[in-house]
Amino acid sequence: MAKDRKFLSALCTICQDVVSQVAYDQVLSSLVKNAATCLNAKASSVRLLDKSGETLQIAASYGLSKSYLKKGPIEVAKSLIDKQALQGKIVQIKDVGKDKRFQYPRQAKKEGIKSVICLALKCKERLLGVLRIYTDKERVFDDEEITFIRTLALQGAAAIRHAQRYQRLKDLNSIGKTIASQLKTKTVPYTICQSAAEDMFAKGASIMLIARQTEQLEVVATYGLSEDFIRKGPLAADKSIGDCLKGQDIVIEDAAKDKRVQYPKAVKEEGIRSIICIPLKLRDKVIGALRVYTGYRYKKNTEDLEFLTTLADFGVAAIENARLYEHARRGYEDLTRDVWKWYDWGEHPPHE
What we know:
single chain; Beta-Lactamase; six-stranded antiparallel beta sheet; elongated
């Protein structure tokens, strides 16, 4: 009964933090502290997947030394405990010094770590990272404790999602203000690519427009992509994820093997796993696309697509504003030149 009350109190504290805090780093700090103290464990940590989806980076920890945290990269392919956890298993290792699934047994021994339990942090269909709890004595967690740990992981994922939604609102508000306050908004497409990539924790993003003379896609802005990938070759509007240019949101989960991708080899070399393609629409006419390239396998999520669609709409507004401004500027210059010629004031008006 005392254990139940302790677990319930910890969960209430974490739930309150999730609701009241915007920055998820504060929530995760509370999460790892409660995970360790409530379970009478030595330490706890949260690691999140990087943009490649191949390495886990520390996001929060409790009870671990700085030297242990800096022991080296946690690569999913080499750390079987994390690989299994990311596949949906709750992984317990009774003795990290004897179990080959643990990547750094020597450093763990020096840190005084004996047992560990690990499970995934998952927000809807997206894998975010892992929660680990460490003990200094051999231990196997019972069913009641595992239920508590599973709930902690759900709360951790909720904290990240909460912060993500807040950041999305901030990004949209900032881009909207920029478009509203400037006539020449050439920097906005880059900002949109940056926001799309960082929000989706992707490798990069691009905005492309259809060149009506050639029916090819011209890159307007990119973020996070290598020069080799950007210059891989011409993109045909009908061959490069053509359904998107018919007005459909397209999610390609395995880009290197999908026939809709025009340059699968270049995609693989860039480390791209999935591609999200959102059409850019101007008065119901598709003029291009916003693409997001992820290093992890992405599964379609309505909330994500709605956010990216709003970014795409902002991109169209920025491009149209820049076009109208340039058209008005040229019209004014032509009119001024004609007036000077009409009154025989010279061939060209003076420069301001």
